[in-house]
């Protein structure tokens, strides 16, 4: 058991109930959920206890573990080191790994050109405003302003917004100290619906911390479990104060699920 093991009794009940479903999908956001938020995206790592419980779940019968992230798949793999059985959703759903046969992301010419223009607009803002950082993704570009002074951050965000808003084929989204432009429309709600279908899940548990995770919470069904991590408005039924409380929940789920036996066919 982890140090921060106290779980809200209502959440505990929900976890113990979902552990008895036929086919369970455990879908976890990464940054701010499996991993505490850090200044530089490349330095994020899952809490060891969260990673261990997630890996244990991935190895259990009737259970699929998935990371559903805004990160590019390559970046997600590099920082999360997911277990090999895990399914991966990257770039908010624009990239999907369901196994070796998964098709890679392909952009058409218009999307490539739109992406080049988006990257140029973010690069211009980053060059002008110290502390801001550009992150490339296969289908998008991110302006990070966590390390910028408030004025520089506001100016960079305004400039990138102005360059992108109203441009056909560009989709803007906000996250924690980030503004992202993508040339593929995707969200975590669609991603959870897709994972539910391909895994034929009879129940889903999903945890996330950011506004982009709200699409995921909205896609949950009666009997699923949605957990908002950290402060902020949310439609999730349950809440944890920080990523440090997640390991206890995953450990409880893994232990209960390991004891569960599928009904004989
Ligand atoms: O959906 P997620 O797995 O939570 O990914 C969302 C974004 O995560 C990363 O940015 C966030 O985490 C960084 C590291 O802790 C932090 O510095 C940044 O301020 C956060 O917004 C990632 O860099 C983005 O590409 C993801 O979209």
TrEMBL record:
EC no.?
3.1.3.12
Which controlled-vocabulary keywords does the entry list? Hydrolase, Magnesium, Metal-binding
Gene Ontology MF terms in the entry: trehalose-phosphatase activity
Q: In which pathway does it act?
A: Glycan biosynthesis; trehalose biosynthesis
Cofactors, names only: Mg(2+)
The catalytic activity, as recorded, is: alpha,alpha-trehalose 6-phosphate + H2O = alpha,alpha-trehalose + phosphate
Please tell me which top-level EC class this enzyme sits in. hydrolase
Any Pfam family the entry gives: Trehalose_PPase
Sorted alphabetically, which SUPFAM superfamilies does this protein's record hold? HAD-like
Which PANTHER family does the record cross-reference, listed alphabetically? TREHALOSE 6-PHOSPHATE PHOSPHATASE
Query: What's this protein's family per the entry?
Result: Belongs to the trehalose phosphatase family.
Q: What does this protein do?
A: Removes the phosphate from trehalose 6-phosphate to produce free trehalose.
Q: Which NCBIfam families does this chain map to?
A: HAD-SF-IIB (TIGR01484), T6PP (TIGR00685)
User: What is the name of the protein in this document?
Assistant: Trehalose 6-phosphate phosphatase
Report the source organism.
Answer: Arthrobacter silviterrae
At the highest ranks, the source species' classification is: Bacteria, Bacillati, Actinomycetota, Actinomycetes, Micrococcales
């Amino acid at each position: 058991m982890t140090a921060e093991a106290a779980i809200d009794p209502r959440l505990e009940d929900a976890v113990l109930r979902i552990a008895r479903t036929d086919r369970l999908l455990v879908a976890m956001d990464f940054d701010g959920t499996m991993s505490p938020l850090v200044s530089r995206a490349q330095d994020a790592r899952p809490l060891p206890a969260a990673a261990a419980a997630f890996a244990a779940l991935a190895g259990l019968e009737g259970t699929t573990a998935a990371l559903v992230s805004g990160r590019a798949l390559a970046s997600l793999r590099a920082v999360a080191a997911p277990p090999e059985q895990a399914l991966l959703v990257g770039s908010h759903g624009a990239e999907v790994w369901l196994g070796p046969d998964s098709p890679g992301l392909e952009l058409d010419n218009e999307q490539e050109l739109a992406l080049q223009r988006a990257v140029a607009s973010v690069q211009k803002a980053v060059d002008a405003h110290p502390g801001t950082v550009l992150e490339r993704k296969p289908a998008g570009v991110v302006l990070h302003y966590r390390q910028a002074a408030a004025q520089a951050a506001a100016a960079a965000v305004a400039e990138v917004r102005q360059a992108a808003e109203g441009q056909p084929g560009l989709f803007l989204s906000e996250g924690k100290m980030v503004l992202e432009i993508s040339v593929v429309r995707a969200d975590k709600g669609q991603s959870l619906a897709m994972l539910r279908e391909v895994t034929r899940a009879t129940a889903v548990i999903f945890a996330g911390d950011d506004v982009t995770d709200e699409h995921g919470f909205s896609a949950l069904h009666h009997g699923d479990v949605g957990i908002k991590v950290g402060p902020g408005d949310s439609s999730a039924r349950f809440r944890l104060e920080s990523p440090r409380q997640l390991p206890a929940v995953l450990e409880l789920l893994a232990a209960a699920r390991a004891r569960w036996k599928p009904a004989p066919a």
